[in-house]
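Q: Please design a sequence for this.
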């Protein structure tokens, strides 16, 4: 179980002018990405769709890597990259509210998904190890394979491995590799994969939307964006609601699935398969990651809460980014977007205040439930007004600033990422593909 000890506030040593520069650069990246727009190209029988959110991630990562060579006005140094990582965590909460409101508004359509929504979770839980574990063993990876393939390696999964094995263990190095790979390449990879699979038209779009809910807001946004870009506009709200419900289920229930089902199953399968598949690897060759010093402390994600000022800064960045994206790509006036974003921020602020009074309050769960309830049409006197104001906020407009901040966060982890070796990267991406495809396949049985 995750530790319940209250964490100290995160400290980012940056001046007010530095923070202002970070905000300006992030908004400039969002504007550039939305200006470039969507691009697509054929790949065999399908096509790959590259959306503004991917341009935002790539541009931000490039600026972060090249920060030493840039003029001061554009420079986002390591300290600001760390701050961007913290802002990302706070900014994602606004994204969660948008998803919750979408789920509430489309609750009848979500109910139509029925049992598929529950059983597809087994695909998310076991799809990673079905594809990833055999490949890892064939590539000569040892116990790192357990940490890298029992899940998609988000924050909760780091906690599970840290509690059971310790982050200095091979399993700890494996889950760390999965985390870093997902952070650096996950959004780009799953967007390309989901877009390509969607273009083949072999799965019901609702199945693909369920598969997109892998338990990570940024990965879900990337996958769903690529899927909905190829669907009729009238189907997008339903797919968004289904994906959000699937993602919430994976985030909440998925923790227990991985703790009690997929991790024990992965460890058990490793003991049976390694003597067989490991023979395909030359004896005595050590996996690339085993030769490295323990990098766990350097790459552990920041769980500490932001201070109140930096939390407000994250809301400003998200609000500005959504307004810019909504204007450039969807021609929604800035004032209209601002009205909707103020409603979203108000919902987050209420739960944030409760969280500071009750540190053990599960923030994401509380926000998701509150936003979903508020979003049910007619349930409260103000529900229809909230939906009218926030309905003009396009879902994809939220994803571009999210991935812009993720791009700067990625830049600071690249040195460690290069140390982890190509084999563990291939395995990690295969595990990510497994969770998407596994859930999609199971959901398809119900459609």
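A: Design:
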């Amino acid at each position: 179980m995750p530790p319940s000890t209250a964490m100290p506030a995160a400290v980012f040593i940056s001046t007010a002018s530095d923070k202002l520069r970070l905000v300006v650069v992030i908004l400039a990246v969002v504007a550039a990405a939305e200006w470039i727009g969507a691009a697509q190209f054929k790949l065999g029988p399908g096509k790959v769709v590259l959306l503004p959110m991917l341009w935002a991630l790539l541009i931000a990562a490039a600026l972060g890597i090249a920060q030493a060579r840039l003029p001061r006005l554009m420079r986002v140094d390591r300290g600001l990259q760390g701050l961007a990582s913290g802002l990302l965590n706070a900014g994602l909460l606004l994204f969660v509210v948008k998803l919750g409101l979408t789920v509430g508004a489309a609750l009848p359509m979500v109910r139509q998904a029925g049992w598929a929504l529950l059983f597809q979770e087994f695909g998310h839980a076991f799809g990673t190890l079905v594809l990833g574990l055999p490949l890892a063993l064939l590539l000569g990876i040892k116990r790192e394979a357990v940490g890298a393939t029992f899940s998609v390696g988000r924050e909760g999964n780091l906690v599970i491995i840290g509690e059971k094995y310790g982050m200095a263990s091979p399993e700890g190095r494996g889950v760390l590799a999965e985390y870093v790979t997902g952070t650096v390449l996950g959004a780009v990879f799953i967007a390309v994969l989901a877009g390509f699979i969607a273009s083949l038209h072999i799965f019901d779009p609702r199945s693909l939307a369920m598969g997109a809910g892998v338990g990570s807001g940024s990965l879900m946004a990337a996958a769903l964006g690529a899927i909905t870009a190829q669907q009729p506009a009238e189907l997008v709200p339903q797919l968004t609601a289904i994906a959000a419900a699937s993602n919430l289920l994976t985030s909440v229930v998925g923790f227990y699935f991985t703790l009690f089902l997929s991790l024990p199953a992965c460890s058990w399968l490793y003991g049976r398969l390694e003597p067989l598949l490991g023979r395909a690897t030359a004896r005595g060759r050590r996996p690339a990651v085993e030769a490295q010093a323990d990098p766990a402390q350097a790459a552990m994600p920041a769980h500490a809460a932001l201070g109140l000022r930096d939390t407000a800064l994250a809301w400003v960045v998200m609000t500005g980014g959504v307004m810019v994206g909504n204007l450039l790509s969807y021609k929604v006036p800035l004032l209209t977007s601002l009205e909707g974003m103020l409603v979203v921020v108000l919902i987050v602020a209420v739960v944030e205040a409760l969280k500071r009074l009750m540190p053990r309050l599960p923030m994401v769960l509380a926000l998701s439930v509150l936003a979903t309830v508020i979003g049910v049409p007619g349930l409260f006197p103000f529900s229809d007004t909230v939906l009218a104001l926030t309905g003009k906020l396009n879902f994809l407009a939220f994803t571009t600033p999210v991935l812009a901040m993720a791009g700067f966060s990625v830049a600071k982890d690249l040195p460690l990422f290069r140390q982890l070796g190509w084999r563990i990267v291939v395995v990690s991406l295969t595990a990510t593909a497994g969770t998407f495809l596994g859930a999609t396949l199971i959901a398809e049985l119900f459609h």
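Q: Thanks. Anything notable?
A: Residues 236-277 form the longest helix (42 residues). The longest strand covers residues 39-43.
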